[in-house]
Write a structure and sequence with these properties.
Length: 300
């Protein structure tokens, strides 16, 4: 059984939580009751949009931010309520040790929550850069539709990775990996340019190789998957898109690289796929990409 002193101590906190949570829960209950009376006009799962997985992660980060902000508000109120209850209702005058202990706990908790929030803000901003770049590339790829291409986004390859974009058309199959890299505010000394030597990406002040190996390995994975799904073997060309940068390629590579401004170059090679092959390959890819469920109302 809880002691009378503990119940009195926690009463202000309980009242505060009650008036914070009950209205929200009541609104949610009424809303859910209302939407049960209708169903969604969409009775199929939708195709994945550019950056679908990143957008879900951004939403999750936003939820985490709201959660930790709530902790940041509630914890000091709870500590204050406990202290004032000890003094006002239980006639206990806190000593210096009590204040030191409570102050240490309070500042330690606030420091932890602020540090956690800062990291989440950093992560969300990084995700937003990636999402915005995938969105830009996805929109840029739409120009290929006039050349007979079918475009798919955020292909769920395996549990640990997605293929950002896939283009299937007469000129072949292209697996496009998008990388968002922020640029410096100042533009002097060519710090808005990058160089690609076929093996490394040379940015102003740093180099990267992982995006190259990632784009190539994902293209090879997709090539194997298409063969197992359709029974036919087709070459998949790896493409790396880094939006917003001026790119200079110094050596040839199997990897095609672009800043995402124009994708017409993918349609300038000779045709290697027939309309039937495009249809068969696109059908298999579309099945994997049609996974987005409607959320406004129940589908049934």
């Amino acid at each position: 059984m809880f002691s009378k002193e503990l119940m009195v101590t926690m009463m202000p906190v309980s009242i505060f939580m009650f008036f914070c949570l009950v209205p929200v829960l009541l609104i949610l209950y009424i809303f859910r009751h209302q939407i049960r009376k209708k169903k969604s006009p969409i009775n199929i799962e939708l195709l994945r949009s550019p950056g679908e997985a990143l957008r879900n992660q951004i939403d999750k980060s936003t939820d985490d931010i709201l959660e930790y902000f709530m902790y940041l508000i509630i914890f000091p109120v709870a500590m204050y309520s406990i202290s004032i209850t000890q003094y006002s209702f239980l006639n206990r005058k806190p000593g210096i040790i009590y204040f030191i202990l409570m102050g240490s706990v309070l500042f330690g908790a606030i420091y932890f929550l602020m540090k956690k929030l800062y990291k989440i803000f950093q992560k969300r901003n990084s995700l937003r850069v990636g999402y915005e770049c995938e969105l830009a590339v996805g929109q840029g790829l739409q120009v290929l539709a006039k050349y007979g291409f079918n475009i798919f986004h955020d292909f769920p390859a395996q549990k640990n990775f997605n293929i950002d974009h896939i283009a299937v058309g007469p000129q072949g199959i292209f697996a496009i990996e998008t990388k968002g890299r922020a640029k410096f505010q100042k533009t002097e000394k060519d710090n808005w340019k990058l160089e690609f030597d076929g093996e490394k990406l040379f940015f102003p002040g740093w180099t990267e190789t992982k995006p190259i190996t990632q784009a190539i390995s994902q293209a090879r994975w997709l090539q194997t998957w298409i063969e197992s799904s359709t029974g036919d073997k087709h070459y998949v060309t790896p493409v790396l898109a880094i939006p917003g940068w001026f790119i200079r390629q110094t050596k040839p590579s199997e990897l095609r690289i672009t800043n995402g401004k124009s994708f017409d170059f993918l349609a300038k090679n000779k045709a290697v796929l027939s309309e039937k092959q495009i249809m068969v390959i696109s059908f298999q890819i579309e099945k994997m990409c049609r996974t987005v469920e409607v959320k406004s109302y129940n589908k049934k």
